[in-house]
């Protein structure tokens, strides 16, 4: 009964936070997540949502510090959009295209997640007939793709204009 009262009070909140959503999630059999599943979801949220953001922002600042000509353009663009305000609004993001290109270029050069690995759950057939069996481990080097000269001209150069 106490649990039901707390459930009702929490669900009555205007906005449920991430943990509330996980705690109240149910599958088609009305089963909630196990403690192990909850822990895994929270770990993913914390590391994927925070560490990657911190890494991305850090490398953006590094790139701009190494390239003051780009830093100056971003600074002027942001000052112009902000006017006498102290904070950006959602609508302002479309008004800072050069800064957006710098962000994309920093993320290309220094991806917060440099590689991804997965295990196939079923047989996968490519368009040319080659296959990957179920249970096959696949790794993709995001860093390698972002530095591939076949994909990117001058891949090791910080060039935000490539995203025009």
Automatic annotation (TrEMBL):
Q: State one molecular function term (GO).
A: heme binding
Q: What is its EC number?
A: 1.14.14.14
* Alphabetical keyword list: Iron
One Pfam match, by short name?
p450
Q: Which reaction does it catalyse?
A: testosterone + 3 reduced [NADPH--hemoprotein reductase] + 3 O2 = 17beta-estradiol + formate + 3 oxidized [NADPH--hemoprotein reductase] + 4 H2O + 4 H(+); androst-4-ene-3,17-dione + 3 reduced [NADPH--hemoprotein reductase] + 3 O2 = estrone + formate + 3 oxidized [NADPH--hemoprotein reductase] + 4 H2O + 4 H(+)
Q: What class of enzyme is it?
A: oxidoreductase
Q: What function does the entry list?
A: Catalyzes the formation of aromatic C18 estrogens from C19 androgens.
Instruction: Family membership, please give it.
Output: Belongs to the cytochrome P450 family.
The protein's name is aromatase
């Amino acid at each position: 009964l106490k649990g039901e009262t707390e459930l009702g009070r929490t669900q009555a909140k205007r906005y449920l936070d991430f943990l509330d959503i996980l705690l109240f999630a149910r599958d088609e059999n009305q089963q909630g997540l196990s403690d192990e599943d909850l822990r895994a979801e929270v770990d993913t949220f914390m590391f994927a949502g925070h560490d990657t953001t911190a890494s991305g922002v850090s490398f953006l600042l590094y790139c701009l510090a190494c390239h003051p000509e780009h830093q100056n353009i971003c600074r002027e663009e942001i000052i112009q959009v902000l006017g006498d305000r102290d904070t950006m609004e959602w609508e302002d993001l479309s008004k800072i295209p050069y800064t957006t290109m710098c962000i994309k270029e920093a993320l290309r050069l220094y991806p917060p997640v440099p590689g991804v690995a997965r295990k196939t759950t079923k047989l996968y057939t490519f368009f040319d007939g080659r296959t990957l069996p179920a249970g096959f481990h696949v790794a993709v080097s995001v860093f390698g793709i972002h530095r591939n000269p076949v994909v990117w001209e001058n891949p090791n150069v910080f060039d935000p204009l490539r995203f025009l």
